[in-house]
Amino acid sequence: MNKDLLKMKILLQFLEQSEEAISVTSLARIFGYGKTYISNMMHELQDEGMVDMSDNRRPRLTERGLKTAQEYHEKIQLNLHHLLYEGVDEENAMHDAYFMALYCSDATNYARRETDQYYRAKLALRSKEQIRGAEFCKHLADGEYSVPFFIYKTKERGRSSDILSMANAGFEQPAKLRVVNGVGTISLTGKPMTAKSRVTGLRMQGKVESVKYISGREYVPCERDGDVFSFPAAGVHFQNILSDSRQVLHGSVRLSMRCDVGIAHMPESAAVVVFTL
Q1: How far apart (Å, rounded) are the C-alpha atoms in residues 67 and 70?
Q2: N or C: which end of the chain has fewer CB within 10 A?
Q3: What is the pTM of this model?
């Protein structure tokens, strides 16, 4: 066992046992090392501000050590759940979860935490074929989530075709889903796009100027903050697609968009935004 991993596991022992049960002797017995080696590790942890060794017989976690141990525990559980969901057997998943907690970047752990929330929500809704966006958000913890999307041209009855809309290039990837008290809001951030004018045939650059979302049978303006257009996640309809080992949710909502170069050059158009989780 390398030193970093051993130090992490020592910190975790303080969460798993009472402070009275933690000693150099007990840790040496648990990890199968000599007491001198464990004592050296404990003093290194003290130098790092994690452990208080003022009483060698009764070491204690410092405030920093407690926070670090709790963060390690959360990361291990997060990565373990992720690996088990991906089909890794429990023994290897547990082994790898420790290393992932220790060495993965905060960005990677954040992404896994986000994915874990999606896993849990999809699992809770696994028996349903059709899911409303409002119901899906009730199964997510408060926070902000990334949602990849494509924008397709519409066919009859508002269904999407397999042809990407011009508006697909007019928004940054991914969309953001913000959940507060189980209520979700989806935000799309506009960006410059280039398309051929239907009047002059020349290439023109513009931005999406307005976005409306379908609510019932009517289009309702999205809230706008600069280049960010937001609408309720309740308006998204998800279809639950199951396979032998995976579960995928396809969500869709119909939008109407207008570009700032004018409808003479780029007409207002309806499209279907498809989210895949």
Answers
A1: 5
A2: N
A3: 0.71
CA-based nearest residue to 268, from 257, 255, 253: 257
Residues 6+ apart with CB under 8 A from 193: 166, 167, 169, 170, 205, 206, 207, 208, 259
27 alpha-carbon distance from chain centroid: 36
Distance CA 101, CA 31 (A): 19
pLDDT of 261: 67
pLDDT along the chain (277 residues), means of 10: 90 86 90 91 93 87 94 90 84 92 88 85 86 94 92 68 79 95 95 74 78 89 95 93 71 87 63 87
Q: Which residue has the tokens 């849990």?
A: 120
Position 243 scores a pLDDT of 55
Helix (H, G, I), strand (E, B) or coil at 263: coil
Contact status, residue 172 vs residue 275, Cβ threshold 8 Å: no
Which residue has 């379908």 as its token pair?
A: 214
User: Would you tell me the crossing angle of helices 3-16 and 35-47 to the nearest 10 degrees?
Assistant: 90
Task: Give the pLDDT confidence score for residue 264 in this predicted structure.
Answer: 46
Q: Which among 139, 122, 231 has a CA at the least distance from the CA of 176? A: 231
Q: Is 30 helix (H, G, I), strand (E, B) or coil?
A: helix
- Do the bridges between strand 149-154 and strand 160-164 make them parallel or antiparallel, or are there none, so unpaired? antiparallel
CA–CA dist 236, 233 (Å, integer): 5
Instruction: Report the alpha-carbon distance of residue 257 to residue 221 in Å, rounded.
Output: 10
CA 118/CA 248 separation, integer angstroms: 10
